[in-house]
Amino acid sequence: xxxxxxxxxxxxxxxxxxxxxxxxxxxxxxxxxxxxxxxxxxxxxxxxxxxxxxxxxxxxxxxxxxxxxxxxxxxxxxxxxxxxxxxxxxxxxxxxxxxxxxxxxxxxxxxxxxxxxxxxxxxxxxxxxxxxxxxxxxxxxxxxxxxxxxxxxxxxxxxxxxxxxxxxxxxxxxx
Length: 175
Prior knowledge:
11 strands
């Protein structure tokens, strides 16, 4: 079955922000979950979001699929695919050399960012979309550690507000 509509809302919001940036800068392309990505290890996945830089242009077959390693991949967890996203896919992306990998949990409104360093993923950020109620119940140290924006390693001049990723659909309306 298809993922819940909130899942696609998160993908849409993130893709829109990145697409707007790429349209202005000409630095690459963003694709959403209807594109096959053929990885060098033989796996074929449809990541929720894929970013390919201008320098990596040759892996895009505009009449077919992506054949090669994207610069950035994002997976939005759903109950039916969560285990695969954090194990099988993460391991494959790491082994094939995807430089930046994000895992978004729509239920907890969190984003974990990973960067490839020496062939292994290093967790570089854990982001929580705190609402006003949550913030009021954090201690001073927790408040000081809270991060409200994410800078893409793939495009260091692009910073995304965490609240904008979760700004669409049921997740906003439930607060």
